[in-house]
Specification:
Largest sheet: 5 strands, antiparallel
Shape: rod-shaped
Low-confidence stretches: 133-142, 193-208, 234-243, 248-256
Strand order of the largest sheet: 3-4-2-1-5
Order of helices and strands: HHEHHEHEHHEEH
Number of helices: 8
Number of domains: 2
Radius of gyration: 51 Å
Structural class: alpha+beta
Mean pLDDT: 75
Helix content: 40-55%
C-alpha cells in the first residue's frame, strides 16, 4: 500500500517541510553581493583617482622646477644662439673674400725672366674694374674682355721678349690655383706699334709713357686672367686693387 502522511504540512519537519519564506532570501543575498561588488569597485576607482591626482600634482611640481631651471639657463641659450649666428656670419664673410695675396704670390713665382709687367689691375667684379679707371688709358687694358668675367679677374699689361715669350707667359698663368681661363686682348711687336703711332703726334705722346717696347723684338701684351669658379659674392661696391709696375731703368733702355 502507498503510505500517506497525515501530519499537517505546517507541522512537518526535515526534507519534507515546505519552503515557508519563498525566493526572498536568495534575492537578498544577491543584492548584498552586488552591493559588495559595487563598494569594491567604488573603492578601487577612488584609489585610482587619488593616484592620478598625486601623479598630476607631482608632474606639475616637476614642470614648475623645469621651467625655473630653463629660465635660469635661458641666458646661456641666448648666448649660444648668438655665437652660432656670429660663426655663420664670419664663415660667409670668409667665403666671400677672395685671396688676392695668394694670387699675387703665385704670380710672382710663375712670372718668367723674359717678361715684365707695366700695369696690374685686380678686381672682384666688372663693375669694380670699371670704377678703377685704370684700364681705359692703357693699351688694350683688358677692358673689352673684363665684361665677360663675372667673378674676380686680373688685368695685366706688360712686355716680353717676342710673341713666343708672351705665349709662354699665358701658359704659365694657367698654373695659378683657381684660374679658369686666360684671355689675350692684344699682343703687338714694336714695329707694329711704331708704324701705327706715326699717324698722330698726340696719340704717340700719350702712348709713349705706357709703351714698354724699347726694341723691335719686344711685344707688348694685354691679358685678362679670370677666376670664374671662385666662391665670391659679387657686390657693386666691391673694391679693386690696382698696382703699377715700376718703369724700366735707363740701363735696360740703353742696351744694344
Amino acid at each position: 500500500m502507498r503510505p500517506v502522511n497525515l501530519i499537517p504540512p505546517e507541522e512537518r519537519r526535515g526534507s519534507h517541510a515546505p519552503m515557508r519564506t519563498g525566493p526572498m532570501p536568495y534575492l537578498l543575498v544577491g543584492a548584498l553581493a552586488l552591493a559588495l561588488v559595487g563598494v569594491a569597485l567604488y573603492v578601487l576607482a577612488g584609489n585610482q583617482v587619488s593616484e592620478r591626482k598625486a601623479e598630476v600634482k607631482q608632474l606639475k611640481e616637476e614642470v614648475a622646477t623645469t621651467q625655473a631651471q630653463a629660465e635660469e639657463l635661458s641666458a646661456f641659450t641666448q648666448f649660444q644662439t648668438l655665437q652660432q649666428q656670429r660663426e655663420l656670419t664670419i664663415g660667409s664673410l670668409a667665403d666671400s673674400r677672395f685671396d688676392w695675396e695668394r694670387v699675387m704670390r703665385e704670380l710672382s713665382l710663375i712670372l718668367p725672366e723674359d717678361a715684365w709687367l707695366v700695369s696690374l689691375n685686380a678686381s672682384a667684379s666688372p663693375s669694380a674694374a670699371s670704377g678703377s679707371g685704370e684700364s681705359g688709358g692703357e693699351v688694350g687694358g683688358g677692358g673689352s674682355l673684363r665684361g665677360f668675367a663675372a667673378g674676380p679677374a686680373l688685368e695685366i699689361i706688360g712686355c716680353a721678349d717676342g710673341q713666343k715669350s708672351v705665349a709662354g707667359f699665358v701658359t704659365a698663368l694657367k698654373d695659378i690655383d683657381g684660374v679658369t681661363r686666360v684671355g689675350v686682348e692684344s699682343s703687338e711687336l714694336g714695329e707694329e706699334s711704331s708704324s701705327s703711332a706715326t699717324g698722330g703726334g698726340e696719340a704717340a705722346a700719350e702712348g709713349a709713357n705706357s709703351d714698354c717696347r724699347t726694341r723691335d723684338f719686344i711685344a707688348q701684351f694685354s691679358l685678362i686672367v679670370a677666376f670664374d669658379a671662385a666662391p665670391v659674392q659679387v657686390s657693386p661696391t666691391a673694391e679693386s686693387v690696382t698696382t703699377e709696375a715700376p718703369e724700366e731703368s735707363s740701363e735696360s733702355e740703353g742696351e744694344g
